[in-house]
Design goal:
This protein is an alpha+beta fold. The strands form 5 sheets. Strands 12-11-16-15-14-13 form a 6-stranded antiparallel beta sheet. The radius of gyration is 44 Å and the shape is elongated. The two termini are about 40 Å apart.
Length: about 775
């Protein structure tokens, strides 16, 4: 007894050391390790020890050791695989009555074949091993080992009781008569069971990888395709179909050469040939495609080649990203730069840069022409300052220092004198460039020679400032005021928007006519124009959410700007107000903002909005230790209603169920439609028990909801999965996957259920695809 206990302890320790704890018999190598250690080494050591210490072997030590070894090996080989797999496979074994019946049928057939083989056939072992081999091929690994165990016990019992007897030589010992035939039967059966398990596992991994690739390709936001060696589209995803404007069936009938722009085809084919020859591993290029509507679109194409084990090319993998907007932006930018360059040349704009620390002043050619500077003379700050007229110099330097101290751009006008005494009027605009310490270190700006314009408009400027801007034909309201902010002109649009006519407003203060508030119920802005026109800028644009309250009680969302009017001396002589009615555009922007975060059909938040709410919940779970519940709800039999009653009925059902679920939750809970018939529910600050109770009520309401369409009653159901968000479980990808797994298991374990996510589900999900979870169950 002591030797047996020591043998069992040694075998258990060695098997724990050589086998995988999570899946002890996970492959042929593991089974061979088990066979060598558990079936051969440990029984042999036990037999040697028992033969040495036991007084019952009657001097025949080798025979005693052999009998001990074969009996122990037979018991371990028959019983131990079932025990090893019990912890790994028992929770998922035989989930259906059909599986029980299939195992029972194999046991009965195997025992029957054993009986007839032992009684009526000259070579019974060959026939006995056949049903075991078939069972190993047909049954899952755990059930196959149960079959082997039951068959071994039955044969052993039948031989010991004398009910059946093998035809062996008369001098064969009883132990050898029982053990060796059973070992001969069990070893190939065990081997076949492990080979079939390895085959099933490999097939499952292949199917899982294929499913992942298919999903990654189908739901990619960029176009993806498999292309044959001769250019035919073998498989395309939805993004590519949308980009090219063809259906998948239409693309299967075309080649990429047919829809490639002729100017880009040769480059594509050249690189494709280099890829086939092995000169390059992949290539990327920008090319144009011809859509189904004949529109030319730009794409960033990335192509790689798939080869077989013999390095023979099979097909191409193409990734096609829409860059039409980028190319149009580049073209627009290039054209804009061309226009700016041409405008600088045509307008005579000189560009300069001043490094304040080094006192280095850089001028372009036009700046030298403006200042009549000789080509070989070096420019510096003192040279520029000496050219400025003395009467303008003090004001100019003051404004420059003020702009530097406030770190703001400046727009100045001053006069310079050439060597020949010619006076030129200059307009300068400059920006300040700062270092890391927020100190101004450089200035960059432009100079424009305004001499001809100043001379042309000098005599007319004062009269022009006294005239008012007459803009009756434009769609914006225009109001002109004098230096005391008294109204002297309003166009018809201004009369309509303010509710005042020009005759009754002429000479009145602008604040009496113009009632502008920040928001519909916000504070009024009195004398805002007078305050704004005291700023140094010439044009003030107010972009706040401003509302014009007119005389008749109407409200207009507006943008308005105030342009001060000055005479030659710089004195204020009035201002012109331009008011734009932006009510419709703001309503459109609000509607667009709403549509971007809500589902169009149900009015519920969409996936993007839901993910933002989820991010906030994850953050509070991490930082504030709050506990929330994340729920995935999937409708059952929804496709049947779509197929039988039509998509209009399906849309109506989604709308009604969205309202039904909204009534069941708290006002601060977030219910969103994630897509199709899938809904997401975020329950902030909710315990697991309360979440389960609330979701159970929702699922029960869905299951009991009668949907009537065109005088026909339909029944719908729902399944839900719940996962808790807390400080230990607050990763966005994890919780989304957990809720999805729980919902999937609820849907495929009877439907109409609510399941909480548990840790063992996460282990299954990490090793298998959801479709394989059902197989394991």
């Amino acid at each position: 007894m002591c030797i047996s206990l020591a043998e069992a302890a040694l075998g258990g320790w060695l098997l724990r050391w050589v086998l995988n704890e999570n899946d002890p018999l996970d492959g042929i190598v593991s089974w061979l390790s088990f066979f060598l250690v558990g079936v051969i080494l440990v029984p042999l050591l036990g037999g040697l020890a028992a033969g040495y210490f036991s007084p019952y072997h009657h001097g025949d030590y080798a025979l005693f050791v052999l009998q001990w070894f074969t009996s122990e090996a037979l018991g371990i080989l028959a019983l131990t695989p079932v025990g090893l797999l019990w912890h790994h496979d028992a929770p998922n074994m035989l989930p259906t009555l059909r599986s029980w019946l299939e195992l029972l049928l194999f046991i009965v057939l195997t025992l029957a074949i054993c009986y007839f083989s032992l009684h009526y056939f000259p070579f019974p072992l060959i026939l006995i091993i056949l049903p075991l081999i078939i069972g190993a091929m047909r049954l899952p690994r755990f059930e196959a080992f149960w079959l082997f165990l039951v068959t071994t016990i039955a044969l052993y019992s039948a031989q010991v009781s004398g009910w059946v007897k093998l035809d062996l030589p008369p001098n064969t010992q009883l132990g050898m008569q029982l053990h060796i035939p059973l070992l001969i039967i069990l070893i190939p059966a065990n081997t076949m069971a492990m080979v079939m398990n390895a085959f099933r596992t490999e097939r499952s991994l292949i199917e899982q990888n294929e499913t992942r690739f298919r999903n990654a390709m189908e739901y990619s936001v960029i176009g993806m395709a498999l292309v044959s060696l001769d250019g035919l589209w073998l498989q395309v995803n939805k993004s590519l179909c949308r980009f090219l404007g063809y259906s998948a069936q239409q693309l299967h009938e075309l080649s990429f050469q047919q829809i490639t722009h002729p100017d880009d085809l040769n480059n594509d084919l050249t690189q494709r040939d280099d890829l086939l020859k092995g000169h390059i591993e992949s290539y990327t290029l920008e090319k144009r495609y011809i859509r189904s509507d004949s529109k030319i679109v730009w794409a960033l194409l990335a192509v790689s080649l798939v080869r077989d084990k013999r390095n023979a090319p099979l097909y191409f993998i193409s990734q096609i990203e829409d860059i039409t907007d980028v190319k149009e932006s580049e073209m627009t930018h290039r054209r804009l730069m061309e226009r700016i360059t041409l405008a600088n040349k045509a307008g005579g704009v000189g560009i300069w840069e001043w490094d304040i620390k080094t006192d280095i002043l850089s001028w372009d050619q036009r700046m030298r022409e403006i200042y009549a500077m000789p080509p070989d003379e070096r420019v510096n700050y003192n040279y520029w300052l000496s050219r400025v007229l003395a009467e303008d110099r003090i004001v100019l330097l003051k404004n420059i220092r003020l702009a530097q101290s406030h770190n703001t751009p400046f727009l100045l006008e001053f006069r310079i004198r050439h060597d020949n005494g010619d006076i030129r009027h200059i307009r300068a605009y400059a920006n300040m460039l700062k270092d890391d310490n927020n100190h101004v270190v450089r200035m960059i700006g432009v100079n424009l020679d305004m001499t001809s314009e100043v001379r042309l408009t000098n005599d007319l400027h004062e009269e022009k400032e006294r005239l008012h801007i007459i803009l009756d034909s434009i769609g914006d309201a225009v109001i002109s005021v004098d230096s005391h902010l008294r109204v002297n002109f309003m166009n018809p649009v201004a009369e309509s928007m303010t509710g005042w006519d020009l005759e009754n407003t002429r000479g009145q203060h602008i604040d009496k006519i113009l009632h502008i508030s920040v928001g519909a119920d916000g504070p009024q802005l009195p004398a805002s124009i007078e305050k704004e026109r005291q700023r140094p800028q010439d044009i003030i644009a107010i972009d706040s959410v401003l509302v014009l309250n007119n005389r008749r009680g109407q409200l207009f969302d507006i943008h308005y700007s105030s342009t001060p009017l000055r005479n030659l001396k710089g004195e204020n002589v009035g201002a012109v107000l331009v008011i734009e009615d932006v009510s419709e555009s703001r309503q459109l922007l609000q509607q667009l903002s709403y549509n971007a975060s809500h589902d169009v059909l149900t009015g519920l938040p969409n996936r993007a909005s839901f993910e933002k709410q989820l991010d906030n919940a994850l953050m509070t779970a991490r930082t504030e230790k709050h506990e929330h519940a994340l729920v995935f709800i999937d409708l059952d039999r929804f496709k049947e209603i779509n197929d039988t009653a039509g998509h209009v009925a399906g849309d109506a059902l989604l709308l009604e169920l969205g309202q039904l679920m909204q009534e069941k939750i708290r006002h601060y809970d977030c219910l969103a439609r994630l897509g199709g018939d899938e809904f997401g529910l975020l329950l902030p600050n909710c315990s697991q028990a309360n979440a389960h109770l609330l979701v159970q009520l929702i699922i029960q309401a869905i299951n009991n909801y009668p949907f009537c369409w065109q005088d026909k009653l339909y029944h719908i159901g729902g399944s839900a999965g719940i996962t808790m968000i807390n400080q230990q479980n607050c990763h966005d990808k994890d919780v989304m996957l957990q809720a999805d797994i729980a919902c999937y298991n609820a849907k495929h374990n009877g439907r109409g259920r609510v399941l909480l996510f548990e840790k063992h589900q996460q282990i299954v999900e990490q090793s298998t695809h959801p479709s394989e979870v059902v197989n394991l169950l």
